[in-house]
Amino acid sequence: MSDENKEVLVTRPRYDRAALRSRIVHLGFGAFHRAHQAVYTDVMLNAIGGDWGHRVVKLKSGAEALQRLAENAYLYTVLKRDSRQGDQARIVGSVIDHRHPETHGREGVVAGLADAGVEIVSLTVTEKGYMLTPGGRLDLDHPEVKADLADQGRPGSAIGVLVAALAERRRQGLKPFTILCCDNLPDNGARTRDAVLAFAGERDADLAAWIEGEGRFPSTMVDRIVPATTPETEARIFDVIGRPDPDGVACEPFRQWVIEDDFVGERPAWDVAGATFTRDVAPFEMMKLRMLNGPHSFLAYLGYLGGFETIADTMADLNYAAAARALMLGEQAASFAAPEGIDLTAYADELIARFTNRAIRHRTWQIAMDGSQKLPQRMLSSLQWHVEHGRPAPLLTLGVAAWIRYVGGIDERGQAIDVRDPMAARLKADGSETPVERVRAVVETSGIFPPRLAGDGAFLDTLSQALGGLIQDGAVRSVAKVAGESKR
Ligand code: NAI
Ligand code: CS2
C-alpha cells in the first residue's frame, strides 16, 4: 500500500469546547499560528482540560475567510506530513472566536483585546508587521505608524491596536495583558516592548510609563515549518477527513516553543504540550535564527535562482545540502554561544533532515519574501562577527550576494522575479551597474547592513566578487564551488 492510501490517524478535541473562554487573542491568524500556538493549546486541553481559548484576528485581508471559519465552528485541520513516517491529522478546537476590522470595525478589534477576560495577546504578523527601522526601533516615519498616531481610537497596525487596547485597559482600571511575540525577530519580546513603548510615548507619557511598569513582553523561540497551503495540501486534507477544509494547513511533525516565563497574570500550561518555559530565551532564539533561518534563506535565494521550486527540491541537489550544512556548522555555529546542553552538530543534522522532508512543499519563493526584514538577524549579524574576527565566510557572503541578485528582479533565464519586500521598488537593479556598483547601491539604499560591514571596503569587495561570480557562473555552479571548497 502506498503512503497516500494508508489509514491516517485523526486526533479530535476531547475537551469541552463550550467551557473555553477567549483568554488569548492572536494577531495575525496565518498558517503558522494554526499549526503552532493553537496546536500547543489544543494538545494541552486534550491532556488536562481548562478554559484557555483563542480569539483570532487578522488586521489586513481575510474577513470572509474568518467568517467562514466561524461558520465551521472554528474547527480546522492540521496535517502533519513526513515523507518517511506518513501523515497524521489533527482537528484543532482551541480557536473559538474572531475579530476583523471589516466585520467588527477597528474599534471592535481594539475592544476584543481590551476585554477584561483577555490575559495574553500573541502575535505572528511577520517581521515587517512591527514597522521597525533596520536598527530595530519603531519607525516613526512609517506611513501606518503616522496614520495610527493621527487617529488613535481606530488603529490599523498591530502596534497601534496593542497600544489602543492597553490604553483602554488602563482607563478601565484593569491590568495590562501579556504581549507574546511569536515572530522570527531577534530579542522578539524586547523589540516588541520597545515598539509599543515608543508608540505609547508619542501618544501619552503616562500611558507609556504604566505599560513599562505593569506590562510584560516575554521573548519566545518558535519553530515549526508551516508552508502556505497549496491545492495539493487541500486535496490531501479532503482525502484524509472526507470533506474540504479551506482553513486546513500542512506542516512538518517537528515543533518547538521556548518561552520566557514572565507573564502579567496567568498563563496556559503549554509545557504539558511540550513547550519549555525558561528565564533566558536569547540563546535559543539566536541558535534558531542563525542555524535554521539563515540557511533557509541561503537555500531560498540560491535555490530560486538555480530553478528549484521548493526547499526539498533544492536539498535534493547534494551540493546545496552540503553547502547548507557547511553554512550551519562551519560559519553560523562559530558566531554565537549554544544554549547549555545543546549539541550543535546533532541540531544541524536534524535541520538537514527536516529540510529534506519531501512531503513538505515549502516554496523557495515564499521564504525569499521580505528579505530586507530577515537578512540582518539571519546572516548579516553573523557575517559581521566573521569580519570582526578576520575570518572568511564564503557561504554567508554568497547567500547575501544571492539576495542582492534576487531583489534585482531578473532571474538567470532573464525572467522577471515577483519580488515581495517592503523595499522591493528601491532594491530593483537598473541593469547597467557593475557588481561593485550594485553592491554599493544596495548597501546604501537598503540601510540594513550594520555600519561595521557597510564601511568595510575589503568586505564590500569580497561581496562584489561573490555577486560577479554568481552572475557569471549561475547559482548551481556557484553552490557546487563553495560546497567543494568547504569540504577541504
Ligand atoms: P501567513 O502569510 O500565513 O500569515 C501572516 C499573517 O500576518 C496574516 O494574518 C497577515 O494578515 C498578517 N500580516 C502580514 N503583514 C502584516 C502587517 N504588516 N501588519 C499586520 N499583520 C500582518 O504567514 P505565517 O506562515 O503565518 O508566518 C507568519 C510569521 O510567523 C512569519 O513571518 C514568522 O515570523 C513566524 N513564523 C512562521 C513559521 C512558518 O514556518 N510559517 C515558523 C516560525 C515562525
Ligand atoms: C522561513 C521560516 O519563511 C521563512 O522565512 O525561514 O518561516 C521558517 O519556516 C520557520 O522559522 C521555521 O520555524
Automatic annotation (TrEMBL):
This is Fructuronate reductase. InterPro entries: 6-PGluconate_DH-like_C_sf, 6PGD_dom2, Mannitol_DH, Mannitol_DH/Oxidoreductase, Mannitol_DH_C, Mannitol_DH_N, NAD(P)-bd_dom_sf. Residues 23-271 form the Mannitol dehydrogenase N-terminal domain. It comes from the Bacteria. It comes from Jiella flava. One of its GO terms (molecular function) is oxidoreductase activity, acting on the CH-OH group of donors, NAD or NADP as acceptor. Keywords: Oxidoreductase. Signal peptide: none annotated. Residues 280-466 form the Mannitol dehydrogenase C-terminal domain.
